[in-house]
Amino acid sequence: MLAVVGIGASGIIQAHIRQQRYLSYQREARHAYNRGLRGIKPDKVTTEEVEWESFPCFYLCMNCGYLGDKNQSESTCPGCGLQKWSDLRNIGIAEQIREMENRERQLVPAKVKKQSGLRSSLLSILVGGVVAWLSYSAGLSLEYMIVYGAAAFIVTFILSWFINNYLLTMSYFSKRRRFPSRWRLPVPLPAKNALPSRTLAGPVRAQGELLTSPISGRECVGYEVSVLFDVAGDKRPPMWVLEEERTVPFQIGGEIIEADRVTLELPPTMVGDEENLEQEKKIGLFLRQRGLFVSEGFYKVFEAIIEPDKQYQVSLFENPPGAAATIFRG
Q1: Left (φ > 0), alpha (ψ -120 to 50) or beta: where does 73 sit?
Q2: 20 to 30 A from 60, CA-CA: which of 34, 71, 134, 327?
Q3: Per-residue DSSP letters for 80-123?
Q4: Backbone angles phi and psi of 274, in degrees to 5
Q5: Could you tell me which residue, 31 or 270, shows the higher pLDDT?
Q6: What are the tens digits of pLDDT across the range 162-181?
Q7: pTM of the complete model beyond 0.85
Q8: Cα separation, 285 vs 64, whole angstroms
Q9: Residue 239 has pLDDT above 70, yes or no
């Protein structure tokens, strides 16, 4: 079910959108390519009792999360240079990845556990000491003072451990820039803080057939789809699980930009209508083709498109060599 419930207030959503824009275009993501999907290892994904979906699906790089097509699956991943593909059309493989990602959402990072343990210990010592002192001040015997102080310490430690684990984990993942678990962007991307070597401006003229945006069905020169995901009761804030971009060749400022060689820096709009069953089915299929399942939680889907014959600016970069260009409104 695609629902707004559980995702949070609109201000939180906008903050996450801004963070995603930073990820996509300031290129913190370049350092995320080889992080891999934690807990998901190619040698743990088996192909026993093979069942296949009736529709085409992407291949998922198990090292960096890049979404490749069938042709790319026969070579190394454009994102990380490794060849660790899993066919998401294979139902068994998709289910195993789904289960491992579910388990990961319940894990507390080791760094957070240490902080939680330290905070819980300090707070418990403080509370236990205060209770013991109050017992002593009330004229109770040494035995009662020790019992009450120890009981306060134990209860405080247990409660604060669980509370700190939850709060610190949410804070950790809210502040930590994390690349989506599924992505398909032009690589290499511009280096962080790289300045454009040139900027082109003018109307965008498609060189060939237009694309159709996956959810809204609008004709376009290029599109970006971003998906925000949340599960009620897990140990993660809302997180981006997909960033996908496609473009056809187009002309701007007298130059041709090749297909899939520009990344979009355009304002996204939320798409999807719970009352539109056909669109809901379309979103469900779109997600499943990328190894995501609508039954797992709450999704918000965003689209941005490059409209044909509209005014835009394109920034070209030389760092690193061959870096993708960036397009924004003119």
Answers
A1: alpha
A2: 327
A3: TS---EEETTBHHHHHHHHHHHHHHTTPPPHHHHHHHHHHHHHH
A4: -60, -25
A5: 270
A6: 666 666 666 666 555 567 88
A7: no
A8: 23
A9: yes
